[in-house]
Amino acid sequence: MDRRLIRERSFGLTGKLWNISWLYVLLLCVLAAVGYVALYSAAGGSPEPYASRHVLRFAFGLVLMLSIALIDIRFLARLAWPIYGVSVALLVAVERMGHVGKGAQRWIELGGLQLQPSELAKIGLVLVLAAWFHRASWERMGNPLFLIPPLILVLIPVGLILKEPNLGTAVITGLVGGAVFFAAGVRWWKFALVALPIPFAAKIAYRYMHDYQRARIDTFLSPESDPLGAGYNIIQSKIALGAGGMWGKGFLQGTQGHLNFLPEKQTDFIFTMLGEEFGFVGGVALIGLLLLIVLGGMVMAVRCRHQFGRLVALGIATNFFMYVFVNIAMVMGAIPVGGVPLPLVSHGGSAMITVMLGFGILMSVYVHRDVEWPDRRDEI
Amino acid sequence: MRRDGKQRSVFTRRALLLMGGQVAALGVLAAKLYQVQVVDGARYATLADENRISARLVAPPRGRLLDRAGVVVAGNRLNWRALLVAEEAEDVGATLDAYSRVLPLPEHERARVEREVRRHRRFIPILIADFLSWEEMARVEVNAPDLPGIIIDVGTTRQYPFSEKLAHVVGYVAPPNEDDLGEDPMLALPGIRVGRAGMEKAQDLPLRGRAGVVQLEVNAVGRVIRELDRQEGVPGQDVTLTIDAGLQEAVLKRLGDESASAVVMDCRNGEVLAMATNPSFDPSLFNSGVSQAQWIAWTRNRRTPLINKAAAGVYAPGSTFKMAVALAGLDRKAITPYDRVNCPGYLDLGDTRFHCWRKGGHGALDLRGGLKHSCDVYFYEIARRIGIDRIAAMANRLGMGVDLPTDLPGARKGLVPTRAWRMSKGKAWNIGDTIVAGIGQGFIQVTPMQLATYASRIATGRAVVPHLTRKIGGVLRPEALPASWPSLGLPDKELATVRQGMWAVVNEGGGTAPAARIPGNFGMLAGKTGSSQVRRVSREARERGFKSEKLPWEFRPHALFVAYAPYDNPRYALSVVVEHGNAGAQAAAPVARDIMVDVLTRDPSGRQEPPANRVADKGRV
Predict the structure, then answer these.
(1) DSSP state, B209?
(2) Per-residue pLDDT for B456 more than 90?
(3) Pairing between strand B260-266 and B239-241?
(4) d(CA A241, nearest CA chain B) in Å
């Protein structure tokens, strides 16, 4: 037996703190610090109104993350279904009474805190899928009927998020779910079976889309066609990036952002802001940092000794990766603008809390990577 | 555990695949970033600069108009304006309330300001009041702490020191209209004015100058962040007019209250020294806006203050036209200076009898006598001999009935009829029309400026054209040189005969205008009277002993006089037209004399001129 396998149902607080990957926490702090710098610049060289609040939120998120990291992963597994259920209920609720922001019902007020239920739903989905596949023997994984309930578990939140409507998050949610399926060992051809009808579905979906969504896709296909309308953001973002060049214009020297040509520079287009001021070198360094955080999460997943932890860690790391990829691709005009922030860098409280919640669960997986979890119920 | 191992190995394999995919995906993004930032960087950087930098035009000060001595006749004056910057006012309503306690703010103006505040971005200044006096400006400035958001802005406005005395010459400026906007982007600037009439219009381009460019850093909503670069514009050039403002004032004073006009020209080069029209208007009213009551008063005034009578008023030249007829006759060899025509007091042509102004007739007269006595029959006879078309050709040659290529806008062409013209109206030309044309009546219409040109051309034999621009930006125009004007091509001998006739009119006993004789040793004046009927006098009225002075004002004949001086070395020509002044000899000739004395007094070379004894010899043939 592995020396590090921990046979006790739980181990002491000190041991858990010792097991936290402080290197990973440091990486997150560095990313948050990048966010502080960017938001300081976005406010025209002032900690107000973004950067100071960003620090407070991150501090709160860090405490939340470390607290969750200490919770036994086996207890979190039992919370998977309740969390999933609550998040789906919130998605339904947001449909009914959601706060309309930026033309879509995405936000809900919970005791003064604005929450995006779709973000919570992704965590709930990852947990519930991991719990489902954790129970499965390798033989049962081969049974297509066994895969139908988790597929429904994916389609419920995806459908609700699509209806909000939030195409970007729906696609990310679907892909995160797909990654969990893939890592659990579902056969390639089954993916092909699900993937094949998607182009046709997309064609039909396009017909029923909201005008703004269609505009976004049309704009993506030719951004210069409407330079002052929907394409304005992308064009201005590319101009800002290009103006940054190799080495950037220097901290607080970016003109595009400071002169307000860049829309939503403190949220969706924060990467552009940094790209203009710190250039290609700064942009690549940031991408490298984000990649380290993604791969760190994946490594934690691989090192975990139980299927639940592996799948949860992989799902959360993939979710983070999707955020990063969609946001950066979006600001460079590589994919349609989706209203996806850059986690831990962009201004915005709700996203910060859910991201840190996710990292808390990821860290819990890491802390409890070696716990004994004899939990093959279907074998017993 | 074996199965768990299988699951774990599959997971590890697939997790590594996903990681590879993630690395590749972010690698693609990095490559794309390289494309956008480094490969296409320069192109996007240019776009960023265009985004950021807004070039704005800055209007240069408009050039001044000066008289020939350098006296400002159209200048720029500081203009204080009160502006409201909404974002600096905590409460626009309260600020306007406070403002209205300092300076009056009519209800409709306040409504306009509030409307514009709503319509514009909050950092754009809104005009509250224009043309504040110094006291008003000071009152706003003193109360500045109570007027948040209100700023005083200094602009310039056009100022006309001579006001109505030079209104028709200088003209006025007004905001550009739609038609102007296309030609020069500067005209779209607020507060800019373009010349609308007179020399302001004629020399608008040099006066306007070229706009400066300020490069401003602006943000996406157009707010100015800072000034990056400034290229000063070229200020409008000063334009020196040929007008002598002092003379202009003297001429106007001499015209008095009459509805009259006078044009004084340098007959050697066509420079207009004075162009007086009475009554006139205040041109600065056009800058700020003319009230409806003022406009109605101007347009209903039968003395027509808005019309520049000197250049756009048309009158039958009457007897002043006789030199043209004489020159036409000499030119066609229809008469020699020595041929005599008998004047019995009338000329019968078919059934029609054309009367001479002198009931008993003048007896036999040669050309000089015909002019001296202004004998109508003599000129009826020449007109009868040569026909209207030859008279018209000579009149045109002397500057009447043609569009003179002058620089003054709004000058009218007048009319010298021809057979072709009459045909084009669908009517036949009658010989009787030719006869009355011989004494400058009938269809003929000329402007006072044409009459002065006519006198200049007779005096010099050169085809001078009246003009009002002497220098632009301090550089003398080539027209100022007498040698630049071509000869009319009329023989000196013929011109001399006519000049002698004009001399005799004034300076010889029995001439029609002894009142025009110049006292002292300024030199002699040669001239010709004219009276142009505005209503036909019937035979019955004439036989009853008709007196034109007894007619209502608007039916009395116009009094005209054309002249040049000094006779032996002509330098100045003038024309005087007194509307409904009855007889040229009484109403216009003394005015012309006084003006000419004034002109010669002002002439720097006038006093050195030796007493012109030899003129008398030349005067007698």
Answers:
(1) -
(2) yes
(3) unpaired
(4) 6
Does residue A84 surpass a pLDDT of 80?
yes
Asked if B79 and B131 count as a contact pair (C-beta separation under 8 A), the reply is yes
Judged by CB atoms closer than 8 Å, whether chains meet at B19 and A329 is answered as no
Question: Where is the domain boundary, B131, B160, B189?
Answer: B160
The answer to whether residues B137 and B205 belong to one domain is no
Give how many domains chain B has, as a whole number: 3
The answer to whether residues B139 and B273 belong to one domain is: no
My answer on whether B264 and B225 are in the same domain is: no
Query: What are the sequence ranges of the domains in chain A?
Result: 13-367
Confidence at residue B536, expressed as pLDDT on a 0 to 100 scale: 63
Nearest-CA neighbor of A171 among A142, A188, A146, A195? A195
User: How far, in Å, CA of A374 to CA of A367, rounded?
Assistant: 18
Nearest CB to B44 within list A241, A261, A283: A241
Are A316 and A357 a contacting pair, CB within 8 Å?
Answer: no
Q: What is the pLDDT of residues B299-336, one digit of tens each?
A: 888 888 888 899 999 999 999 999 999 999 999 998 99
Give A15-54 pLDDT, tens digit per residue. 888 889 999 999 999 999 999 999 998 887 788 788 888 9
Q: Between residues A63 and B147, which one has the greater pLDDT?
A: A63
Percentage with pLDDT > 90 across chain A: 36
ipTM for the whole predicted complex goes beyond 0.90: no
Domain-located, residue B32: no
Helix (H) or strand (E) holding B196: strand B194-197
Same structural domain, B138 and B251? no
pLDDT at A274 exceeding the cut of 70: yes
Q: What's the domain range around B175? A: 43-71+161-240
- Within 8 A of A245 by CB-CB distance, chain B residues are 37-38, 41-42, 45
CA angle B58, B60, B66 (to 5 degrees): 165
Residue B233 and residue B192 share a domain: yes
Strand partners for B472: B239, B475
Looking at beta carbons, which residues of chain A come within 8 Å of B12? Answer: 302
Query: Based on the domain organization, do B124 and B197 belong to the same domain?
Result: no
Q: Kindly state whether residues B129 and B274 are assigned to the same domain.
A: no
Last residue of a domain, one of B220, B240, B260: B240
A245 vs B15, B37, B221: nearest CB: B37
The predicted structure's pLDDT at residue A112: 45
